[in-house]
Amino acid sequence: MKTKPSFIANKLSLAVVTAISAASLFATLPAYSEETPAYDPGEDFPIEVIAVTGRLRSSASEAMEERREQPAVVDIMGADQISRTGDSDAAAALRRVTGLTLKDGKFIYVRGLGERYSSTSLNGAVVPSPDPTRNVVPLDMFPASIIESLSVQKSSSASTPAAFGGGHVDIRTKSIPADFFFKASVGGRYNTNDSDDTFTYNGGGDDWTGQDDGTRAMPNSINELTNQYGGISPIDIVTGSNGSIDFASAQAINRGLASDMYRDMTVFTESTDPGLRGNIAIGDRWDLSDDIIFGVMAAGSYKQQAENYTKREVELDGDENSVQIENAKDVMGTDSIVQISGMVNLGLEIGYDHKIETFSTYLRDTSDDVSVAIEETIDTIAEPNALQVYDIAYEERNLISNQIQGEHFFEYLWDLEANWMYSNARSKRYAPSELSYTYNVILDDADSITSRNLNTQDAPKYVYSRLDDDTENYKFDLTLPFEFGANILKLSAGYEYFERTRQSYATRLGFDVGLSPTDPNGDILAGDFDAIFSDDNIANDALDLELKDASTDTEDYLAAEMIDAGFVNLDIDFDDVWRLTAGVRYEDFRRVTLPLTPEGEISDESGRYDIEDYAIAEDGWFPSLALTWKSSDESQWRFGASKTLVRPDLREVAPVRFQDPITGFDFFGNPELESSDIYNLDVRWEYYSEDGANLSVGGFYKDVAAPIEAIQRISEAGRQLKFYNAESGYIYGIETEFLHDLGFIGSDGGIWEDFFVAGNLTLSDSEIEIASNGEIDPTNNKRRMTGHSEWVANVQLSFDSANESHSATLVYNVFGERIAYGGRGGLDDVYEQPFHSLDFSYSFLPTESFGVKFKVKNILGETTEYDQQDVVVYAKEPGTEFTLQFDYEY
User: Fold this and answer.
1) pTM surpassing 0.85?
2) Burial 790-827, CB ≥16 within 10 A → b, else e
3) What confidence tens digit (pLDDT) does each residue in 52-109 have?
4) Which CATH number fits domain 11-188: 3.40.50.261, 2.60.40.10, 3.40.640.10, 2.170.130.10?
5) Could you give the 3-state DSSP secondary structure of residue 688?
6) Domain 268-475+483-494+521-549+560-889 is of which CATH architecture?
7) What DSSP element (H or E) covers 18?
C-alpha cells in the first residue's frame, strides 16, 4: 500500500473528487438537486454546477474531514464558514470555535486560559507580535479575505513547539488556485454611535494611508543636541548640568526645543464619515509542461472607519466592608482605524512528488484614538470640582512575513517524505506622538463646564515609542513509512530553530508650565491647547515654560532569545481502527533581556548589573501521546497526554514599565519570573454522519505549575500591576459541539432541509493559589485563573435557499464572567461580565458573478462591563454596527 501524496489537482481529478463528495449530498437533497446535468466525458467538467458552496454538507465538510484525520485534538474553521458568519477578521471568526473567547476584540482565550497560554503561527511559522503589551499577535490584524482556514490545536504533539498552553492557532492564507479567478468587493459601515460627532485633531496629510508623514515625530533637534552635548539629555541642559553653557543660553535652547514640538493638537469634533472597506484578489495557474505547474495568488484589502465610543472608568479604595470611589472618569472618544493588508503567494508543482510555495504577507493596522474625559476624584470636591482630560494615542502596527516551504516525496527512497520551511518576519509598533493634557474645570448643576484652565500640576506629556521585533524560523522533518500487512508505521524526525531580537524604546517629554508675570490671571491657560502653546507665546516668553524629561521608570530594553529543538515521532495505524502517535521533543532555550537607561547603559534599578544577571538558559524533554480508536465508520474516540510549558514573554521579564493600551493600566515586568510547566490530558468522542452532520463531546485537564498572573502592587497607588508566579493552578472542563440540518422537523423535510443549526458549549473550572509577600497582598489567595470563564456558548442558525441565491445566518456568542485582574487590600477581584453577542448576516447572489452581503453586529446593543463589589469600574459601549458589501467574482 503506497502512502504517496498527490499535489496536482487537474480538472479530471477535481471532477472525480467533487462528484464523490457530492454524491451523499445529492442523495438527501430535495428533487431540485437531481436536475444537475450529467457529466459528458467529451466536455470540460462543469465543476461550478456540481459544487454547492453555501450548504451545510459542503461549507464545513473539508474542515471536518481534516479535523477527523488529525492525530491530535484540533478544531478547523474554513474560509466558507468564516464567510457565512460574516466575520471580518481572524479574531472575530475564532470566537465561534469551541472553547474560545475573544478579549478586547483582538486576543483569543483558549479553554479559559489568557492569551499568554496561546500561541500563533502564520502558515506554520512563528511570527512576532507588533504589540509590546501582549504575548501573541493581535488577530484582528488578519482580514478574513486572505484566510484559507484557521486551525486550533488543543492537544500538543512532538512536532509543535513546547510552549503550548491552551492551544495553538495556525492562520493559513489562501494558496494557489485550481484555475483563474478574480474577486473584488467594496462596502461601507454605519454604527449607532455614529450619531455622535467624531473626535479628531489636525494630524498628518497621509493619515488615510495609516502612516504618519512625519508630522507627529519627535523633533530631530532633540537627537542632534543629545549628540552635541556628549550624550547628556537636552532636556536637562536647562540646569546647565554639562558646565559648558550658561543658564540663560540653556533656557534659550530649551525654548527652542519646545517650539520644535508639534503643538497643533487641539481636539475638536466633526461629522462622522461612513466607513469604507474593500478587498481584491486574483490568481491563476499555468501548465509549464506535462509535469510542471506554476501558480500565483495575490490579494489586498483596505479598511478605514471611525469608531465612536463612551466609557466609564472607576477606581475604588477600601475593603469588603467599606468601599469608596477614589476617582471616576466618564470618557467620550473616537478610534479612527486604518487597516491595510497585502499578500502574494507563489507555487510550483513538479509532478506528483514535489511542491514548493512562497508566502509573502504585509499587514498594517493603525489606530488614532482621541478621547475627552471628565474626571472627578476625592481631591476635586472643592473648586475646581473636576478635571477635563484629553488623550491622543496614535500608533502604527506593522507585520511583514516572508516564507518559503517545500513538500517532497521520494518513491525511490522507500517512499520517504521530506518537508522544510524557512521564514523571516518583522513586526513594528510605532507611536510617534501620544499626548495627554488636563484642564481644571468647574461644573454647574447640569454638569456643564462654566470655566477651565490648564492644569499645570499635571503638565502636558508627549510619549514617543517604538518597538522592532525580528524573527527567523526554519525547520525540516523526514518521514519514513513501513507496512506490516494492513498496518502502517511512520517514523518521523525533525529539527527546528527559532530566533527573535527585540528593541523597545520610549521617550516621555513634558511641558512644565507656570504663571508668567505677563499673564498673572492665567488668561492664556484658559485657551485651547494650540493657542496656549502658540509660537508667539513661546517666542515672547508669555509662558513660564520648560521642556522636561517626564519619565519616571525605566522603559527601554533590548532582548533576544533562541530555541534549538528536535523531535522524534512514531505514528502507527492498526488496520485503520486504532492509531497511536507517540513522540518526544527536546528544546534548548536561551534568553537575555536588558533594561536600559536613557543613556543606553544597562539599568541597575532591579539590583542587577551585568548581562549575565539577565540571561536565562533552560532545556527540557517534552513527551506526548495520542491514541485514536475508530469505533465505527462514523465515530471515533481520542485520548491525548503531554507535557508542555509556558515561558514568560519578553515584556513580562523586562524590569521596565509599559502601559496597556486597552485598560490604561501600568504594568511592570519581573526578571524573577519562572516558566510554567503544564501537564495536559484530553479525551474526546467524535461522530460524523454521512449527510455532513457531526457531534463531539470531550474533556480536558491541565495542571499548571507556577502560573503567571498580573497582580496589583501594594506600594503603588492606582491600578498598577506587576507579573508574579502563583504557587500552583489547574483547569478542567468538558466541551461539546454539534452541527445538523433541520430536515427532521417536517414529515418530508421540505424547506426545513434548507436550515441547519450548529453550536458548541464549554463548561470548566480552574483554581490558582497566590501567596502574599512584601509586594502583593491579594484579597483572595485562592481563586479562578485570570481570564477564565466557567462557561462559553455559541449557537448558529443558518439558511440556504434551494436555488443558492440566498443565505442567512444568525449567530449568538456568550461567555461567563471572568476575572479581569485580582483584587488587593480587602477589595474583591474585578470581574468582566458576560457579553451577549448576537450577529446576523445575509447574502444575496442574483448571478454567479455578483453578490451582496449585509451584516448587523451586536444587535442587542451590549456593553463591555467590569464589576468590583457591585460597582461598575469599567464600561464601554461599542454600539450596533451595520455593514453592506458588494462582491464581484469572475
Assistant:
1) no
2) bbbbbbbbbbbeeeeebbbbbbbbbbbbbbbbbbbeeb
3) 334 444 555 566 777 778 888 888 887 777 776 667 677 777 777 777 777 766 777 7
4) 2.170.130.10
5) strand
6) Beta Barrel (2.40)
7) helix 11-28
